[in-house]
Amino acid sequence: MGSHPSETDVAHPGNRIGGAPPRTRAWLDGRVEAEGFPVAEVSDYLERPDVVVWLDLCAPRHEDLRVISEELGLDHVAVEDAVSRHERAKFDRYQGYAFLNAYVPRVDGGDLVLHEVSAFLAERALVTIRQDPGIDVDALIHRWDDGLGGDAAGTGAAYLLYGLLDMIVDRQLDAATALDEEADKVEDLVFDESFPVREMQLRSYELRKNLIALRRVALPMREVLNTLLRRDLRIVPPALVPYFQDVYDHTLRVAESTDGLRDLVANLIDTRLALQGNRMNEVMKKVTSWAAIIAVPTAVTGFYGQNVPYPGFSEHDGFVVSSIVIVVCSVGLYLVFKRRDWL
Length: 343
Prior knowledge:
This protein is α+β, with helices and mostly antiparallel strands. Helix content is 55%, strand content 15%.
């Protein structure tokens, strides 16, 4: 969406951050006023009344944030959280602005990938900081372009924050849905006649690990939305309260989905162990039954192998009689065990 920086812009110390050019936008009354301007001009736009500014930085370094820190007067503690990886999802308030840290999940095959994003929120400015390019910024811009206007036009940067939070929670809900589909596939494996134990163990482990990771980043979003919706803090304008309430409802859906999936995965593991035990019992019954059947001819041949005279001793009829006894007893035991479902 932004214009390509010129050679003059690239030479400016604040125009190329972390190896990728920053993206900037300014709105006035819900309409795009400027786009792709240098970071050093952010404060110039903020001096104009009713102008809302957005700045996006991708993988910035500590020294890269000095320019924007001076532009917005950011606290060094908040800047440290913004550039540090693997911070917990949270919403902190400072004098004149607030700091948000959250995660955008994406299910790639059977793996859950988490993309960390931080944001500084002022009254008329939003600065988003991505740790990697995995977050689709263009999709976020489309959300803003489709919704800015009407009541949202006079709400400052709060509406930009709403669009960001709405995208984050929607991606978390999509990830929960993808994990739910994976749980259905694992369930099919559990009740498969072939009973692929190794594949079930591997996919169950991956599903449980991904679910724990999703819960760790999704559940704190409820507290983030609760803080934003507190009336005494007055962070969200009244016109945007229904918008943020809708995002809060989506966080509840994510929490319910993850809780349900956690119980489902636990039940699948218990069911797999129970079925595995039942199959072992079936195998033991079959082995025992076949051992009993084999014991009959062993006993008969051992008895007739004694070196003493018996009916049919040293005669062909004796061999025929012993063979008939072996076959009749073995077949009889087989039918009895089959009728009792031991074979």
